[in-house]
Write a structure and sequence with these properties.
Elements (H helix, E strand, L loop, with lengths): L1 H11 L10 E4 L1 H14 L4 H16 L10 H10 L9 E4 L4 E10 H19 L1 E10 L5 H9 L3 E5 L6 E2 L13 E5 L7 E5 L6 H10 L8 E2 L5 E2 L2 H6 L1 E3 L4 H13 L9 H8 L7 E9 L1 H5 L3 H17 L7 H13 L1 E4 H9 L3
Parallel strand pairs: 3-4, 6-11
Antiparallel strand pairs: 1-13, 2-3, 4-12, 5-7, 5-12, 7-8, 9-10, 9-11
Length: about 350
């Protein structure tokens, strides 16, 4: 059986062409089949694997390699660690408040979000504002797919989550915070939504690992080593700590996310998630907070007028020559749809090894 699955992956992921930088070009369908087959090969239940695959492919489609197939090695490590329930069945509970609670059943977060999203949208349309607390989830994903999905529901939204304690607070020398991403989505009358998603650390930890794999130095100000000294060495940064963006401002935002996406929703901080991991090297285990706001309830008949005002603001940003967040990713989707998805040969070899 294992040999047959290995042969299947080799067939579906075989490259159609090579490009000058020694990368391979795969279609979206090939990336989908490869990703799904690896996850299923390591025992992840079909529904869980499908939800994860959708996000990995979305990241590759948008040329976001730090959240694409690169993540599969970490996912396999997490599955082997016993820190995630492979056949988890999330459950959604609601009451007469504006809060939706999703118990991820110690599974990966994407399926839990997918199941809770319709109830969150329902609550937001009723109350004007609603929140979804996802608990006991193993977090894997960028947050932009979630706020984009809520934009498609016509909702303004925010999402945030702690991670593992990889980041030092401003003025500190030891990791305490997670990368603690924060995302925001604003639906627009036509075209792509306004979306941003960023870690409150200088970069996502995946960017450090990609620099390590490529043997590239880190830019100044990204990280410190285990002695608290600035470093440009990715390996030293992995054993030291990342830094927050904007000094004390990023540190304060990171603290906020620790509090409202951890203790407020009855879940773990980044340091507690790291303790739970106990050296397994698995993905973070904690919670996520998603907040949705319904423009129809806030603005009623005045919605069109004020959304036109919002369009004026966004258009004036572009008119100055500035780029809106996520614009590059939206452009990349068109490009990869036409030209295929580029995967480096070292990354491709790692993917093949995951079927052994």
């Amino acid at each position: 059986m294992q040999q047959a699955q290995t042969m299947l992956v080799a067939t579906i992921a075989s490259p159609r062409e090579e490009v000058p930088d020694d990368s391979l070009i795969l279609s979206e369908a090939e990336i989908t089949k490869l990703t799904l087959s690896i996850l299923r090969h390591h025992g992840l239940a079909q529904e869980q694997a499908t939800a994860l695959t959708e996000l990995i492919v979305a990241a590759e489609r948008g040329e976001c390699p730090s959240h694409g197939v690169y993540r599969l090695a970490g996912l396999v490590r997490t599955m082997k660690s016993g820190k995630v329930k492979l056949d988890a069945r999330p459950s959604v509970s609601v009451d007469d408040t504006a809060i939706v609670r999703v118990d991820a059943d110690s599974g990966f977060s994407p399926l839990a979000f997918n199941l809770g999203r319709p109830r969150l949208a329902e609550k937001a349309r009723k109350h004007g504002i609603a929140a979804m607390a996802i608990n006991r989830c193993v977090h894997f994903t960028a947050l932009w797919p979630e706020v984009e999905a809520l934009c498609a529901d016509g909702l303004v939204s925010m999402a945030m989550t702690p991670s593992h304690s990889w980041v030092a607070p401003a003025g500190g020398v030891k990791p305490l915070f997670g990368t603690n991403p924060f995302a925001f989505g604003w639906p627009r009358p036509s075209g792509n939504p306004y979306v941003f998603d960023f870690a409150t650390s200088m970069v996502a930890r995946g960017e450090i690992e990609l620099h390590r794999q490529r043997n590239e130095p880190l830019p100044d100000g990204w990280a410190i080593d285990r002695n608290g000294k600035p470093t440009n060495d990715a390996a030293a940064a992995m054993s030291g700590a990342l830094l927050t963006f904007g000094g004390h401002k990023g540190s304060a935002l990171s603290t906020m996310i620790e509090l409202i996406a951890g203790p407020l929703i009855g879940d773990l901080t980044s340091a507690q998630s790291q303790h739970f991991d106990d050296g397994a090297g698995a993905a973070p285990f904690h919670g996520e907070l998603v907040i949705a706001l319904c423009p129809n309830v806030f603005l009623k008949d005045a919605k069109d007028r004020y959304f036109e005002s919002a369009e004026g603001l966004l258009n004036n940003i572009v008119a100055q020559g500035a780029r809106l967040p996520s614009q590059r990713r939206f452009e990349a989707r068109v490009r990869t749809g036409l030209n295929g998805i580029s995967v480096s040969r070292p990354q491709y070899e790692i993917l093949k090894s995951l079927t052994l």
